[in-house]
Amino acid sequence: MLSEIEVRVGKFKKSIEDARESNNALGENIEDLREQSRDFVTMCLTFQRDSVQELLYSQIRKLMERNGSLEAMMKASKEETMATTLALSTRIEELEGELALYRAAVGEGLSSVALSSKYVPKPKEFVGTRSACDLDNFFGGWKTTSVTKASWMIRVKTTGKRQGEIGMWQEFQCELKGQF
Question: Source organism's superkingdom (predicted)?
């Protein structure tokens, strides 16, 4: 009986040794699988990273192209705005000058408005009588500008019997002729 137990213990020790060898082999296989798994995950992640980077670079290139287009449009818009602003500033200055003349004409009457000597003819020396024909000749030499027309469009107080509002240059000429 003792020998049978010794045989069984020997078999048991041998099975434990076989189990240890199997366990070691399994441990090595598990390590190999872990290493292969790490390599596979690394490869997949590297591929995904490369794909994402390519997509990102593609989007960056598109955005840079759009940015260039937008910058060109903004530059053109800025230049157009500057030109428009300059033109409007010039026009505002012209209108302010005209407004100053109109205010002077309305506020102080025609006597204070200085007319340019190149538009006002020199009158002939008075010899005693004047006629409507003389007035036609006198007014015929005047160049009617917006300033002279506007000057006559204001309310004019006439000396004598009547006061009137003169709206047009022709009306002024008729009224003046009617006084002679």
Answer: Eukaryota
Q: What does the alpha-carbon distance between residue 173 and residue 57 come to, in Å, rounded to a whole number?
A: 80
- Cα separation, 143 vs 138, whole angstroms: 11
End-to-end CA distance of the chain: 169
Name the 3-class secondary structure at 61.
Answer: helix
Give the residue among 110, 95, 107, 108 at the shortest CA–CA distance from 148: 110
In one-letter notation, the amino acid at residue 139 is F
| CA–CA dist 106, 152 (Å, integer) | 10
pLDDT in tens for each of the 180 residues of the chain?
778 888 888 888 888 888 888 888 888 888 888 899 999 999 999 999 999 999 999 999 999 999 999 999 999 999 999 999 999 999 999 999 888 888 877 766 555 445 454 555 566 666 666 566 665 665 555 555 554 544 544 434 444 444 455 456 677 777 767 766
Question: Is 0.85 surpassed by the pTM of this model?
Answer: no
- Per domain, the residue ranges of the chain are 1-81, 115-178
Reported for 50-56, long-range contacts at CB under 8 A and 24+ positions apart, including other chains, are: none
Burial 116-153 (b: 16+ CB within 10 A, else e): eeeeeeeeeeeeeeeeeeeeeeeeeeeeeeebbeebbb
